[in-house]
Every structure is written in C-alpha cells, then in structure tokens.
Amino acid sequence: MAPIDPHSFTDSTHPLTTHVSLSLYLSFPTSTIHASALLTLSSPFSGTLSLDSRSLSLSSILDPQTLHPLPHSLSPTPDPIRGTEISVVLSGQSQILLIYSTSPAASALQWLSPPQTFSKTHPYVYTQCQAIHARSIFPCQDTPARRIRYDVVMNIPASLSAVMSARHVRRRLPLPEEATHLDSSLCWCAEDRVVEEFVMEQPIPPYLFAFAVGELGFREVGPRTRVYAESADVEVLDAAEVEFAGAEEMIRQGEKLFGEYDWERFDLLVLPPSFPYGGMENPRMVFLTPTVIKGDASGGQVVAHELAHSWTGNLITNVNNEHFWLNEGFTTYAERRIVEVVQGADIATLNMGIGWRGLKDEMERFKDNLECTKLKNNQQGVDPDDVYSQVPYEKGFQFVLRIERQVGRTAFDEFLKKYIATFKFKSIDTDTFLDFLKANIPGIEKEINLELWTEGVGIPEDAYEPVSTIYTKIISLAEEFKQGKMPSEDEVAEWKGQEWELYLENLPKSCEPSQVIALDKRYRLAESKDYEVKVSFLQVAISSKCREYHGEVEKTLKTVGRMKYLRPLFNALAQSGGTEEKQLAKQVFAEARETYHPIAQGVVESILSKYI
Ligand code: BES
Ligand code: ZN
C-alpha cells in the first residue's frame, strides 16, 4: 500500500480512474440515490484496486464487458475519517461497474423536504463534496491527486430541474433500457419522471463534483453567467440579478491577471440558507449562500473568491489537504486582486484587515495545536472539516503577498501567469511550488525564509499588517471601546458591513455588558440584515454574558446553516463558562440539527462534545 493522501484509500501504484459514468435515480421520499457508476481506468489492471466510499449500500460490482461479478471486499469497520475501503480484484480489466445506493445520511447530500424550501411545495437536494464527501455519492479515488472526467444521466421528478458542475446536454424522457441497475419497485420510466443529462469534459478532482435538484429558476446576468435560485423565491432572484451584475467584469479582470477563463460558463447558484459555506467553487456553477446577497460589496467579494478558484484550485489543485493553502492562499490573493480593480483599493485593504484579524484569532485558537498554524501541515488521522480555519487562507495570502512585495507587482504578475500555465489541470504539492518559485525567481530563497513560511508555526515577522486610513481608524476606535468610548454617529456615518465587522472583531473578547447593550441600542447591530455584522456582534454579546440576546442567537442559529456563523456562535456559547449558555447551545442544536447540512451537523457536534 502506497498512500498518496491521508484522507483516501487510493494507492499511488494503482492506475487512476480517468472517467466516471453515473446513472442516478433520485428518490426524494427515501432521500436515496439508486445508482450505477462505470469507472474507467487509465490502463488495464491486475490486482486489488482500492476505492473510497462512505455509507454506500453496494449491491454488486461487475465487469461491464461480461457482466460477471468481480470479487471484492469492504473494510470490516468504516474508518471514522476516510469511510469504507472497497477492494476490487481485477484481472486485466480497465473498467468496473458498481451498482449501489446512497445512504439518507450521505455526508455530501442535504435533502430538504418541501417545508424546508422557500416554495414549501417541492423537495430539494444539493451536494457539498469538498473536502472528502464525494465518496458518499459514488465510489471513487476521492483524492485531489486524481482527476476525472464524467457524464451523468439523472432521473428526477418532472416538476424539478437539475444543475451540475458540468455541461447540460439535454432534458428528455427516460428510456426503458436505461433502467438495468434499478430494483423493479422503482419505475425509471414513470410518467412523472424526466432525465437530465450532463457531461464534464474537463478533468476535475472529485471534490468539485456537484449538483442541485429543485424547482429552479434563473436570470441572465452576463454573456456566460446566469444566476439560479428556487424559482418561487423571486425576491432572491431579483436581488441576485442586481448583486451579481458585475460578474462578467470580474471574469475579464481575472483573465487579464491570470490567463484565459477555461471553463466556458460561470453560472451561480444561490442555495437555501442551510448551505454550509459562503461559497463553493464548483466549476461552471459556483454555489453560494443566500446570506451573501445584501446589496453591498461583500457579495461581490465571495463571487470574486469563487471565481478566482477557476485558476487557483480548479486549474492548479492541491495534491491533498495538507497543501490546502495552495488552493485557498492563492485564491485569497487572487480574490483581493480582482476586488482591488472592481471595488477599489480601500475595500481590498479592508478585506485584508478583516483577514489579518482572523489570522491572529486563529493563532490564539490553535495555541495548543501549533501544527494547525503551519501552511503545510500533517493531517494523518485528522478530519479536514475539524481543522478548517483561516490559516491556509490568510497565512497563505500573506506568503503570496510577501513574494509579490519582494519581486514587485509586474514581475510577480508574470510569474503567476507562468505558474498557472505550467501546472494547469495538474495537482501539486508545496515543494513543487517552491521549486518552481526558486527556478523562476532565482535567489528568492535568500530574501525570504521559504521554509519558515511553509513549515514554521505562527505568523512570520515579515508578514504585512495592512495599512490604510480607514483600517487604522477602525482599529483605534475599537481600542477606545475598552476605555468606555463608543464611536460617534459621525465616525460611523460611512460605515457599511465590512467596516462594522472589522470594528466588532477588534473589540475585546469580553466587554462590560452595559456598554455592549448601549452600543446595540445606538446602532442596532443585533438586528442587522448583514449576518457578518450580526454574528460578530452576537459573539461579543455572548462572551460578555449579555443574556438578553439569547433569543436573537437562537433565531440566527435556526435560520442559517452557514458554518462561518454556526462555529463562532456555538463556540462562544460552549466556551462561555455559563450553564445557561451551554444549555442554550444544547437545546438549539437539538432543535435545529435536522435543518443543517450533514457536514455542519458533524462540526457542531464536535464543538459541543469538546466543551459540553
Ligand atoms: N473551497 C472553499 C469552501 C470549502 C473549503 C469547502 C473547505 C469545504 C472545505 C470556498 O472557496 C471558500 O473558501 N469559501 C469561503 C468564501 C470566502 C473566503 C469569500 C466561505 O465559505 O466562507
Ligand atoms: Zn476558497
């Protein structure tokens, strides 16, 4: 066994899967997908091939040429992080056909019943495969070290439509001959079913596999961009149309900076509020939380970030999660370059400042687990969802910025373009990047301590704390809060969400309750429609034991499932030391749990089990 990824059973000596053909029958009443997966290997293989899977019910594995069963076994107990290893014995085949069903608890899938949707009349399902959840939808070599092309035939209720991180081929009636893998109790060709076909011609790591099925509608916002959302949610569609009108301009800027946009379409899907992330860079179809739509610059920031992944992450991919900073650090840098052009340098600096604060907080969070403060870190036996943090984003950003500042923008821009052109559609590790850096910027290792940056703990001294008048002003106002001073109406007159977020995040962790209440009375922060502001405020309120906000905390935790909000609120409650707070955390989770995506359920569970 020669593993290439601590989160996968994939063996480096085995041939890679180059193509997957999926036939998916979505059963909403049972939250199950009845499926077949035809895997094609890069070469014929004799021996035992390892595949990743998680909570799949496997009914058979066949040689697709002969339809004879292939000998196989499953690891006796699932690994808590990697899931179940499927070992298939091959004797010269280069294709494998697996017939299986997914579990209603599949970690990548959230099934929403009609009452959980906006329309309340149709069900909805969507995926989130990063970091290691694709294996709960189809058996695969679920590592970003491997890339696959795929095609999908998806059988869904005719009242719904499907979107994917792939090219839509057609919507048509189901054909009887397609139903071979289905149990006879399920009717592939029933009158109320349709088939949607998709094909992904560009090779992608499995974590970028994505779909959503629901009653969807869309608006055209640019020559290669539509925004999709639940069709009944006209308000979100209207708002998204305005919010994301600048997408094409961003793509053009991205192309200027990083080279041609390789994915043809850049569509956006606004998901229900339970979507666990701000955004997910699924190729051709970025997934977004509805909380980004608030009519200011921050929605654009998330889109800029997911767009930037089209080059850094989706074209050049980290070989495994230990090198995640190659995806997120570069993307955060690229995002800020795009924001700088389309929204201005002040907003880019403000974002940098929020990031800097976040990075400092993470150093505090990981003071007893310094491994997590390294860019390249050891994740043997570590669940990537448990160690998700700002470190790969913000320390990674700082490292990229450090190089830019050393060589100057013009030279660095040229370097970036060459880096992307050289490694596109490849998966690389930190050393590969460093070798390329040293080869293309000779002597760089004498100017920057590359080893300290990539392998050292903490924040290197030559990191760059952003400076701008507005940033410095906000930090000093936050400092003054400790002395009992509140910012005046004049001082905050121009503030939007990001200014407030920076201010609130720089307040002391625990403040005088009367002062917190006074601040809210004046500026109505707990009721802000901007979740970044609301959650930053509620965090301060919880840590300061202002219990009058518990109602608002509960409401928030029951409305949104974005982990960026769940994590700090549940953490603040669990770590506050108060019995009432702990009780609230337990009660709210018990009541809201079912409305969260399985990944978010797991993350909240691990917070509560650590502190309660
Ligand atoms: N790829 C990430 C989301 C992700 C990371 C999902 C790890 C699963 C595992 C995405 O690009 C991202 O970083 N989203 C951010 C957006 C923000 C930085 C603008 C988020 O969700 O907050
Ligand atoms: Zn990202």
TrEMBL record:
Cited InterPro entries: Aminopeptidase_N-like_N, Aminopeptidase_N-like_N_sf, ARM-type_fold, LTA4H_cat, M1_LTA-4_hydro/amino_C_sf, M1_LTA4H, Peptidase_M1, Peptidase_M1_C
Tagged with keyword Hydrolase: yes
Compartment(s) where it occurs, according to its Swiss-Prot or TrEMBL record: Cytoplasm
Record's keyword terms, sorted: Cytoplasm, Hydrolase, Metal-binding, Metalloprotease, Protease, Zinc
Peptidase M1 leukotriene A4 hydrolase/aminopeptidase C-terminal domain sequence ranges: 469-608
Cofactor(s) needed for function: Zn(2+)
Similarity field: Belongs to the peptidase M1 family.
Name assigned to this protein: Peptidase M1 leukotriene A4 hydrolase/aminopeptidase C-terminal domain-containing protein
